[in-house]
Amino acid sequence: MAQGTVQVTHTGTSRWRRRTGEYASLAAALEAAADGDVLTVAPGTYRENLVVQRAVTLRGPEGSPGSVRIAPVDGVPLTVRASAVVQDLHVEGQDSAAPALLVEEGTPELLDVRIVTRSAAGIEVRGGARPTVRRCTVDNPAGIGIAVLDGGGGVFEECEVVAAGQSGIAVRGGAHPRLERCRVHHASGAGLSVTGENSSLEAVGCEVYEVKGSGVQITARAAAHLTDCDVHRTTSDGVTLDTDAVLTLADCRIHDIPENAVDLRSRSVLTLTRTTVRQFGRNGLSVWDPGTRVDANQCEIFDSTGDYPAVWVSDGATAVLESCRVHDVPDALFVLDRGSRVDVVDSDLSQVRNTAVSVSDGATAQLDDCRIRDAATGAWFRDHGSGGTLSGCTVDGTQTGVIVTKGADPTFERCTVDSPAEAGFYVSAGGRGSFHNCRVTGSGGYGFHVIDGCRATLKKCRTERCARGGYEFADGGNAPGGGPVVEDCTSDESAGVRPPAHETAVQTSNPSTSLLGSIPGQRTTEQEPLVTASEPGPAEPARTSKVVLGELDGLVGLDSVKREVRALTDMIEVGRRRQLAGLKAASARRHLVFTGSPGTGKTTVARLYGEILASLGVLEKGHLVEVSRVDLVGEHIGSTAIRTQEAFDRARGGVLFIDEAYALSPEDSGRDFGREAIDTLVKLMEDHREAVVVIVAGYTAEMERFLTVNPGVASRFSRTITFSDYVPEELLRIVEQQAEEHEYSLAPGAPEALLKYFTAIPKGPAFGNGRTARQTFEAMVERHAGRVAQLDEPSTDDLTLLYPEDLPELP
């Protein structure tokens, strides 16, 4: 029963029929009212479940907002099924299975309604309803703020979700609302969530912030268009798109995001226009999977707070940037994996701490009329199959202008490199490349530096004011079948293009930039930072050797590796105890050689080995510093020894892990500066034998050659540990571990299907062992998400079980 009365002004077609009545309950007043009547509710609390089925006006008294409370014990407090007007009411609900305000039909107006509830949803719109909702607030810490479902729509103007236990605003089932100048904050799920085919959302002038999840989440073939919106201060990604989602952002601002500012996967499409992305902890744009695409025009991505690339494109995705600016970031563009592509037109990449453009694992980059400034490396094409074209680009103020290595074969046309500290264009380690009408001015090293007999092609190129010379072709020169092909190239040197040199020079980076950092080759939501030769981070509480060995034992497979590490550990521990007892201890050499294919756990074991030695008091810190040839070898005579010494000093008290160590001693290298790195390293290992443990790693055959070519190095290492490829059963176990960690389970038949899959998968050079297993699990999770997203009420089994049909196609 109401604590007040309801005054109803009955309005007829004639003025003389207008009359007023008073009712003791809202239900009675609604029953008596006809279309057009006005129901003015006296202040009070009404414990009624109201249903508005006529086109009436239901409102509280003027000048007393919030004085009328609709607060039943359970059920839906207020249901609207007509084109009514509801104004100045305070609605409270307590039913976790029902909404507080339900709009089912008509085109009602909801004005200045405040909803404070613990319901399934604060406002729910469904079916054919098309309400206009103005200046309403929702406070629902138990459920969704506003839910628009099952074909519902409507316009929400100047509304605010001040708290939500789930998504702030959820759209699904083909619904399509419009938001104007709304605010969503303090939600425990996504700020805006749109999912399902034909579901869409349009938002103008809205703000999403302080949410425990993604700011905007578009999934499962849904679409959204945001204009002049702000997304900031989330705990997860700023914007997430998955499974054929489509989103347009125009004049928006995404900032203060601890994870990815924007993350796209599974054939999603994003269009950004005049949008800024700043202060992000991981990637500004993270783009994954074949068919996934980003088109950015007149956008700005800047001020990264983490150690990740601003734009990350992998697994066959595509990104197009036109008239954009990317600046004040660790790395600007990273494109990796075969089929991945980045097209950049008339854009600026500047203030980049490491690499402006990095292309690897068979990816492609096309840059036209772009400007790269103030970066450690302008562009780096890293490995076989990686390529693309830079046309009409300028590279200014870098450490090294362009690097081409390991079989990469890009094309450079009409590009200018100005004032690099070292080389303008640097080609090594089997890199190729075509350089047409390119120019280098003011280099602190060589203009064009081609070593290792790399067969690059230079046509009509020009160098000016290069400190060490315009052209340097070490090993191969212009000889038939090897070395660069040079046509019509000129230099301001009187001697013109230099003949092949007797000395070779190598990588041209400052060691602090760690240019040859590990390139993640796997699809993972937890990317490692791309800086590997950095200072050790803050010390964590030391673990005992027993605990660390337990973690080692928990790794899948690697039985022979575990035995070797335990044997070493036992030798060191017994030697330590003998010394404490006043006995002589056998000298246990701690330096190791790790051989094996990628993805077999070499870096992980090296990190655990360092931690074990620290727990036994053999090493002071036990941290891992990972480097490769580029971090150790300099271009100038004498610079290699300095770089190697600096890397050794960073590893002091821990482990220096040299990946692909055989690259320090390439076959037929002549007087390669890598020999200087080896000589320096051998001396440091001898002079400071107790300070650092050195582990060299690489492919088995190459490491055997490395040790044969360098007997001085071989004598410094106690033993070689071989990391075998994983067998199908071990790959299955890795998938099972991943599933358990992420709260998934393999359905009946899935383990058998995985074994068949891992048996049939090609085991060529691209096979990634444990990395392949993790990629397979993530691909299964994505396919599972695409399947389960179609279910209206998925069960726990639906949400957790991975079936054989979730397996991806064999590569």
Automatic annotation (TrEMBL):
InterPro entries given in the database record: AAA+_ATPase, AAA_lid_6, ATPase_AAA_core, Beta_helix, Carb-bd_sugar_hydrolysis-dom, CbxX/CfxQ, CbxX/CfxQ_RuBisCO_ESX, P-loop_NTPase
Organism: Streptomyces olivochromogenes
Family recorded in the similarity comment: Belongs to the CbxX/CfxQ family.
Domain named Carbohydrate-binding/sugar hydrolysis: residues: 41-172, 313-474
Region (Disordered): 472-542
Protein name: Sporulation protein
The entry's keywords: ATP-binding, Nucleotide-binding, Repeat
Domain AAA+ ATPase: 588-728
Taxonomic lineage of the native organism: Bacteria, Bacillati, Actinomycetota, Actinomycetes, Kitasatosporales
Keyword Metal-binding: no
GO molecular function, one term: ATP hydrolysis activity
Polar residues composition-biased segments: 505-524
